[in-house]
TrEMBL record:
<dbReference type="InterPro" id="IPR010982">
    <property type="entry name" value="Lambda_DNA-bd_dom_sf"/>
</dbReference>
<dbReference type="GO" id="GO:0003677">
    <property type="term" value="F:DNA binding"/>
</dbReference>
<dbReference type="InterPro" id="IPR001387">
    <property type="entry name" value="Cro/C1-type_HTH"/>
</dbReference>
<protein>
    <submittedName>
        <fullName>Helix-turn-helix domain-containing protein</fullName>
    </submittedName>
</protein>
<feature type="domain" description="HTH cro/C1-type">
    <location>
        <begin position="41"/>
        <end position="88"/>
    </location>
</feature>
<dbReference type="Pfam" id="PF17765">
    <property type="entry name" value="MLTR_LBD"/>
</dbReference>
<feature type="region of interest" description="Disordered">
    <location>
        <begin position="1"/>
        <end position="43"/>
    </location>
</feature>
<dbReference type="Pfam" id="PF13560">
    <property type="entry name" value="HTH_31"/>
</dbReference>
<dbReference type="InterPro" id="IPR041413">
    <property type="entry name" value="MLTR_LBD"/>
</dbReference>
Length: 268
């Protein structure tokens, strides 16, 4: 990537000034009263001290005279200002850098999303899985369609593990549909490992599937990477027989959670 444009640098400096103005002044030491301040927030010297950078360099940042601050500097500034994840990501983008990737997906689903799942019990199946391909939740309609979880052990809730170690999904999707899903499972595991390369859970899952599944090894060797957001699938409902569902995937990027909506389609 190249450096920031002049407008980017102006926006970056303005954001720093606003964050500095929003910070409370440091507590006075002992009984010494803090000097009267003519402007709210911290002084540049105080911010630079907290961030561990020189006041001269920090001044240049606020004035938009640094073409592209380093990721280390951006991290230090985010920590100094006490930014939330969303605010930190905004700072990185203003600085001309992609936001840092989280070390792993969030383990807790937003309460509002769980209420959405329950509200759609009588309308459509809905599932939620994370960026490791672990199933986090599903509503009552999804339980009826997908059946009980059959996986056991550490990877019992993992979609890729279930795909290559059980017949549940192939029975649900049929021959051609089951084979397509194996391709998707392998490619999405590759995507997950690319995003979380140091994740012990994913590395252990990959090692186990490589050691135990010839089918997984065959699909992995193809080197495919894809994420399908919309798809039409034929699925074998346990009581209603074959039915068509339009599947739409929505992403919560902050938590790296994927919401899958299975909309039933009337036969034409």
């Amino acid at each position: 990537m190249g450096g920031m444009s002049s407008s980017d640098r102006t926006g970056f400096g303005e954001y720093l000034r606003r964050r500095r103005a929003a910070m409370g002044p440091p507590e006075p030491r002992g009984s010494v009263r803090a000097s009267r301040r003519r402007v709210p927030g911290l002084r540049r010297q105080e911010v630079s001290d907290i961030a561990g950078i020189s006041v001269e360099y920090y001044t240049r940042l606020e004035q938009g005279r640094v073409p592209r601050p380093s990721r280390e500097t951006l991290t230090s500034l985010a920590r100094a200002f006490g930014l939330s994840d969303a605010e930190r990501d905004h700072l990185f983008r203003l600085g001309g850098e992609p936001p840092p990737e989280p070390p792993s997906p969030a383990s807790v689903i937003r309460p509002g999303l769980l209420r959405l799942l329950r509200g759609l019990d009588d309308t459509m199946p809905v599932t939620v899985h994370d960026g490791r391909l672990d199933l986090l939740a599903r509503n009552k309609a999804a339980e009826e369609l997908l059946g009980p979880l059959t996986g056991v052990g550490r990877f019992g809730r993992n979609i890729a593990h279930q795909a290559f170690t059980t017949t549940v999904l192939s029975d649900l999707l049929g021959g051609d549909g089951g084979e397509r899903f194996l391709r998707v499972a392998a490619s999405e595991l590759r995507t997950a490992l690319g995003r979380y390369p140091e994740d012990d859970y994913l590395r252990s899952l990959f090692a186990e599937l490589t050691a135990t599944s010839q089918s997984f090894r065959d699909h992995w060797e193809k080197g495919e990477v894809s994420v399908s957001r919309s798809e039409m699938k034929q699925m074998r409902h346990p009581t209603d027989g074959w039915a068509r569902f339009e599947i739409e995937m929505l992403h919560d990027p902050e938590r790296d959670h994927w919401i899958m909506l299975y909309t039933p389609q009337d036969d034409e």
